[in-house]
Amino acid sequence: MTLSKRREFGLEFYEFLKDTNRTSIKNKSKLRDIYNNEFRNSDGVKRPNFSSVLYALKLSNKARVYSGQVHFNPTVREYYLDQWRRPTRSVQNGGLITSTPPVHNGVQLNKYTVGVPSSPGPAQTASTQNGVTSHTPRRDWKLANKILKMYNSDRAELISDRRGVLITSDHPVKDGLIKFSLESVTEVHIVHLFLKNSSSSPLLFTYYSALHRMSCFTLQDTQKVTRNNPLQLAPGEQYEVQLQFRPKHPGFYPAALVFEFKPPHSSSPPSLAFHLLRFVEAQCVTSLARELGPTAPYRPRPIMSAEASLRYIVEDGEQPERGLCRKMVAISPSLWSRSLLEGGLTWESYKELLQLLLYLEAIQMEVDIKKYNMTKSPMFRDKAKKSLLVLEVPGVSENRPSVLRGDSLLVTKWGEGKEGKVLVKYRGYVHRVELERVKLGFNPKLLSSFIDGQKFDVEFTVNRLTTRLQQRAAELAFQHNLGNTLFPSGGTTTKTPKLQQLWLYDKALEQNPEQYSAVQNIVAGSSRPAPYLVFGPPGTGKTVTLVEAIKQVLKTKGSSHILACAPSNSAADLLCVKLLEHLEKRKLFRMYASSRNPDDVPTAIVDCCNMGEHCFVFPCKEELMKYSIIITTLLTAGRHVFVDEAGHAVETETIIPLAGLLDPDNGQVVLAGDPKQLGPIIRSPLAIKYGLGVSLLERLMKVSLYQKEESTGTFNNRYVTKLLRNYRSHPSILKVPNELFYEGELQVFANEMIRNSYCNWEHLPQKGFPVVFHGVAGRDEREENSPSFFNVAEVEVLMEYMRKLLQGQGKRGLATISPKDIGIIAPYRKQVEKIRKALKIVGSVEEFQGQERRVILVSTVRSSAKYIQTDQRFSLGFVKNEKRFNVAVTRAKALLVVVGNPLVLRGDPAWDRYVDRLLFCPPTVETEESEVQQQLDPEWRNEL
Ligand SMILES: Nc1ncnc2c1ncn2[C@@H]1O[C@H](COP(=O)(O)OP(=O)(O)OP(=O)(O)O)[C@@H](O)[C@H]1O
């Protein structure tokens, strides 16, 4: 159980002590007895033992223990029990709070009308019994849990006025919900709630509270009603409770309020109590937020109904210009058996099992893509190229559906499908993919009769090429005898190599013995035929080691042919740019697939790649052999094959460049990556279950050859190098990922001046600790037909940080910074689009793996838990995806700002530990624990 959960139980116990007037008890064994006998198993919730709970309280400075006595920290009450912010000052004794600026200051509030009671109400006496002022309604955990459980089935009843109680308000109430909106954080808004006994007998109003804590709200009433101090409502009598909303930040703040009533006999048992619920949705929306808000309400595209059983013919369309394109034949698995699936991956089962898993994956892709079929979708002529038609495909930029240049889809004129008639389906080829639309090339037969805005039914199709390439690679790997490479034992390895002394291009690497030895071993080919692995956490120099090794292989063996690959275009481009630092352009060739958008080619690479006049061209083999290095993505792919970010790729993707190209005896494969960062994206649950989600790098790392030798406790440098010196980040940025994912092994080696450049930034909650977690109560919204999410409140907070960063630069000893030193990472395309409206420097996590910036701002977007499963399924978002989370928080050198809703994020174990460690454990040795809590805005600290 996490520390935060244990702490939560501890605080809940403290609350229980308060409720039963026993906070004066300090004796540890007595408290343990109360905990065990009365609290621990009182409501079926599984709670940890007392010591474990006490330990969590101690760690978070909420309790101290000495001489067998437990002393609860007085701030426990303020921070925790008082989840509804305590009034800052009272108007009169026992009166209603009117903290500044009061909206209804001076208005009378009493039992029947709004006013201040002339004398202290009975609550004063009751609440001071224990020497503690406890009139602010506190949360009843048991009740909150009970209501949350009932909520799904009994919502209608919970919000209905019952047993003579009517709850009305000065705001409109629709379906139990009160909504209102403010324009600025300086405003305070009050909602008056009137509780009326409309029955013919008296009733007791016994309790009110909120189901969730949210400190921007305050609830209050004049009589300070509690269960110890109930209020009798005579027939026809009305009583007012006020809700005050005072947001600190723009955002969306939902709340649920519960009101408890009972028959008026003092002896009536608690079971006779009944509860009414009201919901509140408060918003604070600034003008920027309005501008960025949904352009139109979200309306998912109508999905095409199940395929009609009509006869049809297909009219082929116009393909985009591209080089030679060889059709590949589909491979159906020859064997399909449970024993094959369950037998695990061995060299004997390699081809059959991988082909079967790829087949399962392809079936899942077919099923998935059908869900995106659209009906009644209009198309328009492209203004720039009249022969193309433009179709809106919301979500295409997030691969929902996955459509690339060169893929095709089928359209039918809407309303044409009639029984007995042969339907014409027109195949449209994708010429260009834009944010939410594609440009399609169709048959002239369609174009000649096309009217702008004409509506069509659209069927998406899966491009089988990628699966087929991988299936073929599995087959070729077998044919070309790559068993010793893919299942290395070390037994077949050639004699111990002689390592040469090398003069590295990047002198910094000579100072790092692991990097230097990795380069030496790669140059000597010492692991052959086994692959050489370079693995290690973020920022440890895997890519630069790989790049240096490539340069050294070329320097020492001039005739070598090297294929350098990465799973994504951005990672392959990065390799290319780094290689160009010391190599002549003529030696190097970056080969793009025809599906790549030519506009996305970085300028540094334009004149050493396969970009032709209008499209990418594919030179013949002889032409290609003139180059020393060819750089491609794995799917687009020697003697030497280098693969960067190998942990991100499916095994069969990684073997595409090996199978058929690698000489099994003399070829050298080098894989660099980190299995704790982005992994393969697989849709089929069966394929995942039986191993397709494991990259070649990850699988090999479990082979004994690549593991620490027991006798020495070290890795065998001949086959593997583990890099542990991080050259990127300030220790505070690394602290939590290091503990979560790397067993604390990462060492800080980043340039001191750069990594410390934000340690004194005035906006840090704590000096010397350049990590900020900024809690935002936003709302994850969608607009129009797009399935992608955005969160305007988070954009606003990001903009605020951008302003602070750019305005503050160069001042008070801070380094100057330009926008290119700042990166913003968001998990959804729509959020990226919204942020781009103001800035030009954002990208998705995939684009950021392998990259770094001086300052990184992360927007997590998710603010409601209900979409988290969808995120998991589509490998989107940061919640419930440790690897994406790890990549996002390890890109910054000097300052990391994470903006998100901690209540939602904490539903994920990794985030929970992250927020927990940031908040409750000293991030650096010299930090005071109490100060660490300042890392989070106080408003949120109360919520957690
Ligand atoms: N020996 C070294 N001395 C100084 N700086 C280094 C050294 N090795 C790497 N670096 C620097 O560290 C940073 C991270 O390097 P690199 O991108 O190669 O790491 P990585 O392990 O591939 O990271 P990630 O897994 O996060 O993509 C770069 O700025 C690089 O120049």
TrEMBL record:
Pfam families: AAA_11 (PF13086), AAA_12 (PF13087), MOV-10_beta-barrel (PF21634), Mov-10_helical (PF21635), MOV-10_Ig-like (PF21633), MOV-10_N (PF21632). Residues 6-72 form the Helicase MOV-10 N-terminal domain. InterPro entries: DNA2/NAM7-like_C (IPR041679), DNA2/NAM7_AAA_11 (IPR041677), MOV-10-like_beta-barrel (IPR049080), MOV-10/SDE3_DEXXQ/H-box (IPR026122), Mov-10_helical (IPR049079), MOV-10_Ig-like (IPR049077), MOV-10_N (IPR049075), P-loop_NTPase (IPR027417). Residues 512-597, 628-684 form the DNA2/NAM7 helicase helicase domain. Residues 155-283 form the Helicase MOV-10 Ig-like domain. Its EC number is 3.6.4.13. This is RNA helicase. It is an enzyme of class 3 (hydrolase). It catalyses: ATP + H2O = ADP + phosphate + H(+). Residues 694-901 form the DNA2/NAM7 helicase-like C-terminal domain. GO terms for molecular function: 5'-3' RNA helicase activity; ATP binding; hydrolase activity; RNA binding. Gene3D superfamilies: P-loop containing nucleotide triphosphate hydrolases. One of its GO terms (cellular component) is P-body. Residues 337-371 form the Helicase MOV-10 helical domain. Coiled coil: none annotated. Residues 372-460 form the Helicase MOV-10-like beta-barrel domain. Keywords: ATP-binding, Cytoplasm, Helicase, Hydrolase, Nucleotide-binding, RNA-binding, RNA-mediated gene silencing. Belongs to the DNA2/NAM7 helicase family. SDE3 subfamily. It is found in: Cytoplasm, P-body. It comes from the Eukaryota.
